[in-house]
């Protein structure tokens, strides 16, 4: 992972000088501040700032639901209740700002989550670095033969080598030409906003990404999921660790009700009821399609 | 203004115990934390939490625009440049959470700004207090005779007295009946979610409102404007004071480019150019309607 | 229900003159256009415009997922797949615009759904009508003794009569005074934006509400739910009927996967697995709180 | 421009069969439906669906502002009033759905406008076509020597030739390798979601993009502006033509108040006032920085 020396100096400087504040402080999060967590070969996630903690979620809920919330005995119970009943607004009261360095094709998936604030490094104004994501051998997955979206086993031998050679060589050549095109060495130099179009989607970019906890958990549910592309999932996993230290009660409820939970359809619930009564339920008499049944069996596995 | 004793105790407790943090601290904002600013007869605004400061705006801009932003010599210059050219995302990197107590008819206007997070006190679950907004005599404005939206001079004498009597008596009676309806004194008691419908729109509610700086400034531009209803403008004015201490450079740029500025149409710009050349421009030869011309003359004052 | 004569004339006029279009047409929705569905005592819902149909959902999905989606044999299968796997963007490709007349306290709940476009009748500019929601006797529910939010049985006898008398009399008096205050009969007349504060929350307002299908279904899941307040649920129910005619495949999938479905936590799924293996699972050995267990038992019916 | 034969057949089919509807019909927009407007070398914009017209904007405004809006004599006057006073919600009542084919680096700028619905062709599931944006000679601009963001004159001679050769050759080689990597010709074939990372940012993608008129006009103001990158501006220009036919009054007001207008700061307005009184105002005594003054002179130019 590569923070630039300037970035590292900025971080060191900031870490050295705690200041007093009257705001809510999350001990678990303070230790993450400014420390970049390495992800993939050149990427990272680092916490730039945060607002709120578990107590702030409860405080907002108690404004909303008043005395009603006092019957729930403690903060953890209240947070579990809110998560279980899909109360989203108290979780929106926490906010986090991350600095992320990531390949462009990952950034393109990530940005589809619209309810966040983003400042991305601009290749119209500035020159991108010569940094490209090259998968580790074990991440060099074959196309799944089961479905269009998934990955199969890792490629091996000559095929793997050829793929890595293509990825590396094409990236290096594209970057060489990028540099030559914008160079003013005895020439005018192509506009940066044009030259960047020669760079492949594994080039690294970086951004500041600011999001509230409710929308962050929604992002994590989709992107830390086993069906998410590996290259975004590793970022989601790194963020999960951070969230777990920041708001431990909320994260634990999230794991139980979202990550580890499952939504069953009306038809599926009916099948469960029949099975609990001892009935033999099969795909044929379940009312589900083959795909649904396969997923249903997977959940009850 | 009335914070409940519990709210005041919570505030006193929080103010007494600063904690160290590695996050960005805005000195100007720390002094506002937890101090409720009185607004109207029973309302208030108080800062619960915040994220970022002027430097955080610049930091995000420099991630986006890289070396390009270094040519702007200092933070204030950069912030003015960003404001002037409608760069909104760096301002989104600051966030504030406010606790606001306000009459329901003000809350109904306020909530129309959708890009914020809100937790409102719920009258489905809890019982509202007997607190109603009754305008001060100088705020008891007549309907404007010029336009449908505006206010004229303050009512006086018997008319003013009658209005105040109606507002006070109807509020008190409505609240008496609200209390009687939900009372279980020898009866079942009407559901709170129904009983609340008897309360008029000047009853006070409260909420936590969390918003980023870009959207907050947009709110302030509309609601601190002279055309906004007085009862929401006083809240906007109170928030302006807070923002001015929180992010002084951004607020100053906002005053110059937004609050004190004006957008001229293509036609209006053309008129200015003609006037600067010495031409006599009148409404008739301006290409503007009477309404537009009146506003144009107002701007050129 | 009361459309004004002008509104009814506008509707009759529009219904009389179909025009040719090249756009997608939903037969089921055309029959709803401009016909107001009565809700509560003075409210209504009517479809003003719509965009898209079931086929438009599939068309958008096929742009996204390309050849992958052709393996799903037909539109209904594809829509069920999308709903089951929480693919939201294809459903966002349909849009509907409704004209709704509703009590203010219902409007206040409704507006909390932020991802919609709203134009509400403005009581700053215009004068509200003398129309108030007065619950039917069977909707005059007592406060639940089980939880703070719910409703118990309907009030009866003298208590019911007194409640209805309060609601009616207070509304009429408040409106009389509203009229007197804004009257210019020998006086200046209070500004409308102030006078409105005397009106209780059961006064009717109206708005145009425009929303995409994904966000509409989210709204319906929360507001057509048995736990929603009756007075908003009847609006949600009326809209459900409309959606069912507009996009029948999407609505059916919504009923199966959302309205009739349930999300089970990791702990709850584990209990189901244990029960299916024949183990005796009780609240005590379930790992759930009493509240969770009660809900779990309710789901398994 | 290249619609696939299947896309063209779908379009021809749809254009051949108008159907009756009770909805608002915009004659000007009907003629655009399904006709793809070519943009750049392989891109296009085509209207898939729309909702509303100029009259729908006024209808929504009249719900909001009631009788107040009747004093404005006609629809065009009302629309100009709404645009001038930044009333955004009535414009949100119109919606359009576009199918756009565009280079990835343009898509990355475009997606930053978050208030829209998007379904993009997925290169996780499907295989991208061998289509790349190669600038026409006159669009092959040099980096501006004045500012970091802009473009200078077009490159010429050998430098231009070399740039075009790099762009073409690198794209073709990257695509050859992309094809080889995913090929299952005697091998497993790399997962598509990985192989795509080898493709440069001038490869074409496509999406369905649905947006309301208010947010579309905001997009056009920024992207049809002279400072926008040429490659996105040509898309914005094509959409401007469409909007002009769809809602002619709104578009004309937009041109006058937004595209052709300018926002003057408090300081700039003061300078105008001084100049109109005959005072000699220079940068030195203006209170503006050099950059602001240059822009100010440009506006009054």
Shape of chain A, please? flat
The name of the CATH architecture of the largest domain in chain A is 2-Layer Sandwich
β-sheet strand percentage of chain A: 15-25%
**Mind telling me the C-alpha Rg of chain A?**
24 Å
Enumerate the spans of chain A where pLDDT stays under 50 for 5 or more consecutive residues: none
Instruction: Describe the sheet with the most strands of chain A.
Output: 5 strands, antiparallel
For the secondary structure, the number of strands of chain A is: 9
CATH third-level topology of the largest domain in chain A? Gyrase A, domain 2
Question: Structural class, from secondary structure content of chain A?
Answer: alpha+beta
Number of domains of chain A: 3
Helix content percent band of chain A: 40-55%
Q: What oligomeric assembly is this protein in?
A: homotetramer
Please give the count of helices of chain A: 13
Q: Could you give the order of strands across the largest sheet of chain A?
A: 2-3-4-8-5
* Gap from first CA to last CA of chain A: 39 Å
Largest interface: A-D, 56 and 56 residues
Please tell me the overall pLDDT of chain A.
92
CATH class of the largest domain in chain A: Alpha Beta
SSE string of chain A, helices as H and strands as E:
HEHEEHHEHEEEHHEHHHEHHH
Summarize the structure.
Four copies of one chain form a homotetramer. With 301 residues, chain A is of the alpha+beta class.
